Amino acid sequence: MPTMAGKADLQGKTVFVIGGSGGLGQELCKVMAAQGAHITVFARKRHLLDEAQKNIAASRRDSSQRISTVAGDMGVATSARTLITSQPVIPDILYCVAGGVPDDCGYFLDLEPQAFERCMASNYYSCLYPAQAVLKWWTEDDAKSGTPLIPRRRKIVFMNSTATLVPLPGYIAYTGTKAAQRALADTLRLEAMRYSGPKSTYTVQCVFAHNFITPTFLREQKMKPELTKRIEGTSGATLADLEKEIPHASQVAREIVEDVASEDFAVVGRQLIPQLLWANMMGTSPKRGWGIIDSLLAILTIFFVWPINQRDIQKKCFGDALNKQ
Ligand SMILES: NC(=O)c1ccc[n+]([C@@H]2O[C@H](COP(=O)([O-])OP(=O)(O)OC[C@H]3O[C@@H](n4cnc5c(N)ncnc54)[C@H](OP(=O)(O)O)[C@@H]3O)[C@@H](O)[C@H]2O)c1
Fold first, then answer.
1. Quick one: 153 exposed, middle or buried, by C-beta within 10 A (0-12, 13-18, 19+)?
2. Mutation pick for ligand 1 pocket among 44, 83, 168, 217 (CB with most ligand atoms within 8 Å)
3. pLDDT surpasses 50 at 192
4. How confident is the model over 256-297, as pLDDT tens digits?
5. DSSP H/E element including 221
6. From the CA of 270, how far away is ligand 1's center (Å)?
7. In a domain, 325, yes or no
C-alpha cells in the first residue's frame, strides 16, 4: 500500500515515552535513540525500566544522548503530573504508548466490573494525564520564553489500535477505552491548535496499530476467547504461524516513527487491512495526506468490503454461546 511517511528529524530532540519499558514502547525508544533523540521512559516496574534503559542506551547514535527512566503509575492523576513536571528538561514530543489488555480479554458477562476500571486506567488515563501535564508545561513555557526564529515543533502521539475501528467480541473491556482515547486525540488536536503561533506549533496524532508481536500480545492470545481468534484469523495458530502474518514490534516501531513524521493525524501503517478499517471509520477525523487514497479506500470499503465482512462476523457470532452449552 502507498504510505504517507515524512522524514523524522529527531536529532537532539527530547522525547517522553509513557509505557516505554517493554513491547512496542521500548522498540520506539530504540528507533528514536538511534536517530539521535534524548529519551525519558515512564513505566511502573523499576526492574523493567532498568533493563530498558540499557537496551535503549545501546541503540543511541551518540553517547551524549540522555536516556532516563521514571517509575510511577501514569494512570493516577497526581503522580502523573508530578512525575512529568519534575523532569529537568522539557520534551519536544510525548508518546503515550501504555496500555493493552493482557489480563482482561473476555466477554461482557464474564468480566468482573473491575476489569473495565483497570482497562480505563491503563489505556485512557495513563495517556490523558501525561498529555494534559505536558501541554500545560509547553504553554507555560511559551508564555515566559521569547519568540524563536522558527516556531518550536511540539507533538503528542497517542497509541491507539485497529480494535477501535472494528467491533470484536472478546475485546469489550479494551475497545471502549481506546475509543475514548481516539475521541480525546481528535478533540485535543483542535484544542492544541489554539496554542499554535510564532512560538510553537502543536500537533496531535493517533496511531491505529494493527496486531504486532510482543510478549503481552502472546499473553493476550492465551486469554482471548476462541470466537475472537476466529474473527481475527488467529485461531489454532502457533507462534511460527503468527510470525508469518503478524510483524514484530521492532518492525512496526520503525514504520510508526517514519509515519509520525508525516504530521497526519491518523497513522495507520502499511498493511491493507488497517487502511481499509480506517477508511471505513474515519468519520470526522482528518483524512491522511491529500485525502485521495482515504476517499477511494472509503468507497471500496463502505460499498463492498465491510458489508461482506460484517455478515461474516455476524454469522460467526450468532448462537456462539449456545453452541458451547
Ligand atoms: N500488541 C498489539 O498487537 C497491539 C495492537 C494494537 C495496539 N496496541 C497498543 O500498543 C501499546 C503497546 O502494546 P504492547 O503490546 O507493546 O504492550 P506492553 O508490552 O505490555 O507494554 C506496555 C508498557 O506500558 C507500561 N504501562 C502500562 N500501564 C502503565 C501505567 N499505568 N503507567 C505507566 N506505564 C504503564 C508497561 O510497563 P509497566 O507494566 O511496568 O508499567 C509497559 O512499558 C498499547 O497501548 C496497546 O494497546 C497493541
1. middle
2. 44
3. yes
4. 999 999 999 999 998 999 999 999 999 999 999 999 999 999
5. helix 215-223
6. 21
7. no
